């Protein structure tokens, strides 16, 4: 090799070395993605995700994101809006609700032109084959009744919610199913073929993903956006069934395990679910905090929002979660019954939901007027012993934004029109693009809470809908 050729060869080597050493950090995205935590940070070098501790290391959890130990490397002013129209009105429907002994709500009982999006919950994933688990005939019939409503309600879109629950026991979350799915291209191929076949068979408009939750200790953090990207790509091939949404928890320890920088690229909107923080208490669960409190705590919602805004998630792409069920708890001390007092446990299950620690709103209404429940559902199969369960009074806790009532068995925090209006005002001020309800199947016999929300969204928050059905004069909520 001559001198000239050697010079050219050495020049190429030096050029390549320079590119490798001095290229923009974005070119090394794969390395950053693999190791998002434990990276040095300061005010000039913010964390890609998570928070910068006082020791100068990126991470998540209380030691990083507590009020006294966090350097917010991406401080942004909290968005405020008085013009948000809360244009999306999303409701979850429990496909198993027909199995309740009473207070059931069938698809045909839902008032027309209320919810613009109905999320049918749930379908699950077979942990062995990774196909969608076949649904019972009763669930298929309920899905068909909802999709038939699209013929006369032009605003209605029907999604199906894919959950990480155990296929044959929905009381048990199984986060490992989504974890194994997200890290395997072969499993995703099987799952996406099964999913697109399912939504085509039942005329579904889109998919809602409910992973409870990425564990934060494996590769879930980076695999979840890739999974959502692949789901989006598969939906684009279905000929119009493009919708894709995702639930997010309000719990900061869980929320930090979602890659909030990348997920918005593939999702139409997020459903923020500030639920189950105080109801259905489990021993040793420090986040749910064994204290008396409402299902939806606005302080915790705002903390979750701050994390979203810092990660550049647009508030208009998030729906604010509203519960159509109430916290039902046993105070640890009968002399301390205000919000924040210790709770001993969840209270006795309701006659319909049969779940400790919560009451569906329809069950709260039953406690206010047991005779109405008997008339609505018939006396033959409803010989409930109401006894000392009936509610005789209620007080408004303005700070907590909820009504409080008690009987000898339970402490109940529930919603009425006034508290719902306050929550919608807070959602508007925070810039939310819509509201999401869990669950429409918790509503009363006359769907009164759905009508309240529809009325408020239309009259107070200027929501527009194609069918001009108005329900403000049909609401029959009981008061004590």
Automatic annotation (TrEMBL):
Hydrolase among keywords: yes
Keyword Repeat included in the entry's annotation: no
EC number of the protein: 3.2.1.14
Signal peptide: 1-22
Any Pfam family hit: Glyco_hydro_18
Matches recorded under InterPro entries: Chitinase_II/V-like_cat, Chitinase_insertion_sf, GH, Glyco_hydro18_cat, Glyco_hydro_18_chit_AS, Glycosyl_Hydrlase_18
Key words, A-Z: Carbohydrate metabolism, Chitin degradation, Glycosidase, Hydrolase, Polysaccharide degradation, Signal
GO BP annotation list: chitin catabolic process; polysaccharide catabolic process
Catalyzed reaction equations: Random endo-hydrolysis of N-acetyl-beta-D-glucosaminide (1->4)-beta-linkages in chitin and chitodextrins
Gene3D superfamilies given in the database record: 3.10.50.10, Glycosidases
Domain GH18: 87-460
Single Gene Ontology MF annotation: endochitinase activity
Membrane spanning stretches: none
Family: Belongs to the glycosyl hydrolase 18 family. Chitinase class V subfamily.
UniProt-recorded name of the protein: chitinase
Natural source organism: Aspergillus ochraceoroseus IBT 24754
């Amino acid at each position: 090799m001559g001198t000239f050729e050697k010079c050219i060869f050495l020049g190429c080597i030096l050029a390549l070395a320079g590119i490798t050493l001095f290229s923009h950090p974005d070119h090394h995205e794969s390395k950053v993605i693999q190791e998002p935590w434990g990276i040095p940070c300061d005010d000039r070098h913010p964390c890609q995700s998570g928070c910068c501790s006082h020791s100068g290391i990126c991470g998540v959890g209380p030691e990083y994101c507590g009020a006294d130990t966090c350097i917010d490397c991406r401080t942004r002013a909290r968005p405020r809006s008085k013009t948000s129209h809360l244009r999306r009105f999303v409701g979850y429907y429990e496909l198993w609700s027909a199995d309740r002994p009473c207070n059931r709500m069938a698809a045909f009982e839902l008032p027309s032109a209320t919810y613009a999006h109905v999320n049918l919950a749930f379908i699950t994933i077979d942990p062995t084959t990774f196909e969608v688990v076949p649904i019972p005939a009763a669930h298929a019939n309920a899905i068909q009744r909802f999709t038939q409503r699209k013929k006369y309600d032009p605003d209605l879109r029907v999604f199906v919610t894919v959950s990480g629950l155990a296929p044959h026991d929905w009381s048990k979350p199984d986060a490992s199913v989504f974890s194994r799915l997200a890290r395997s291209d072969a499993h995703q191929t099987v799952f996406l073929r099964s999913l697109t076949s399912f939504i085509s068979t039942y005329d579904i408009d889109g998919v809602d993903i409910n992973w409870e939750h990425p564990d934060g200790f494996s590769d879930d953090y980076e695999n979840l956006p890739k999974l959502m990207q692949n789901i989006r790509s598969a939906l684009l091939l279905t000929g119009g069934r493009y919708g894709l949404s995702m639930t997010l928890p309000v719990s900061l320890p869980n929320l930090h395990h979602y890659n909030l920088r990348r997920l918005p690229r593939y999702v139409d909107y997020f459903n923020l679910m500030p639920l189950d923080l105080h109801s259905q208490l489990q021993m040793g669960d420090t986040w749910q905090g064994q204290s008396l409190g409402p299902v939806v705590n606005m302080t915790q919602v705002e903390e979750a929002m701050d994390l979203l805004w810092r990660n550049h998630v647009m508030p208009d792409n998030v729906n604010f979660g509203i519960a159509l069920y109430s916290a039902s708890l046993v105070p640890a001390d009968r002399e301390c019954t205000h919000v924040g007092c210790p709770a001993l446990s969840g209270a006795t299950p309701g006659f319909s939901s049969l779940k400790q620690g919560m009451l569906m709103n329809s069950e709260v209404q039953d406690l206010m007027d047991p005779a109405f429940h008997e008339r609505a559902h018939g006396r033959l199969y409803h010989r409930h012993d109401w006894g000392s369960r009936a509610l005789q009074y209620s007080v408004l806790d303005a700070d907590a934004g909820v009504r409080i009532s008690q009987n000898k068995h339970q402490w109940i925090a529930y919603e009425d029109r006034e508290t719902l209006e306050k929550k919608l005002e807070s959602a508007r001020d925070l810039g939310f693009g819509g509201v999401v309800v869990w669950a429409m199947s918790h509503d009363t016999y006359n769907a009164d809470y759905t009508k309240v929300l529809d009325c408020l969204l239309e009259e107070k928050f200027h929501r527009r809908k194609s069918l001009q059905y108005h329900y403000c004069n049909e609401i029959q909520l009981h008061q004590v």
